[in-house]
Amino acid sequence: MLKLLTLILAAVDVQASGGGGHSAHISDLILPAWNFVPLVILMIVFLRKPLRESFNKNAEDVEALYNVAEEKDKEAQIKLDMYEKKMSSLKVESERVMKDAHVQTEQYQKHSLEETKHMIQKMGEDADSKVAYEKKQAIRDVNASLVDEVIAKTKSKIKENKDFKTKVTNKLVAEI
């Protein structure tokens, strides 16, 4: 290998020191091409394996990064789907709760209205029965006081009049 490199350098040196004419001809390119071809061959031989390994490593890194990104994308999609399901179920749940609340409110209002009507009716009945009771009680009190007054007046008239007193005594004795 060292010999080949020495030979190439010698050929370049010979070419550089040659001819003083500057006429351009295609044959003037043969020697530089002859020098360039071994250089390219040497570069291919020596650099092919490291370059291939470098490109393969970069390809593997890119593929690994792509696989990780794909996996993260799948995980993110699964989480997104899960959260969307939760959000839709929460929406449905909140709608159901609101509907239940409205139904319960309406039921409470109906029940409260019925209970109020029942209570008003019961209070009316209680008031009527209380008025009737107090009326009866007042009539009894009036009758009792009237009877007491009649008895008192009768007693006083009997006591005042001796004639009535003897008639009442005779009548009571006769009944016994």
From TrEMBL:
InterPro entries in UniProt: ATP_synth_b/b'su_bac/chlpt
Gene Ontology molecular function: any one: proton-transporting ATP synthase activity, rotational mechanism
GO cellular component terms, semicolon-separated: endomembrane system; plasma membrane; proton-transporting ATP synthase complex
Chief place of localization: membrane
Pfam families, sorted: ATP-synt_B
Coiled-coil spans in chain: 52-100
Residue ranges crossing the lipid bilayer per the database entry: 26-47
Keywords attached to this entry: ATP synthesis, Cell membrane, CF(0), Coiled coil, Hydrogen ion transport, Ion transport, Membrane, Transmembrane, Transmembrane helix, Transport
Membrane topology type: Single-pass membrane protein
Subcellular location: Cell membrane; Endomembrane system
Family, similarity comment: Belongs to the ATPase B chain family.
Function statement: F(1)F(0) ATP synthase produces ATP from ADP in the presence of a proton or sodium gradient. F-type ATPases consist of two structural domains, F(1) containing the extramembraneous catalytic core and F(0) containing the membrane proton channel, linked together by a central stalk and a peripheral stalk. During catalysis, ATP synthesis in the catalytic domain of F(1) is coupled via a rotary mechanism of the central stalk subunits to proton translocation. Component of the F(0) channel, it forms part of the peripheral stalk, linking F(1) to F(0). The b'-subunit is a diverged and duplicated form of b found in plants and photosynthetic bacteria.
Protein name: ATP synthase subunit b
Protein's gene: atpF
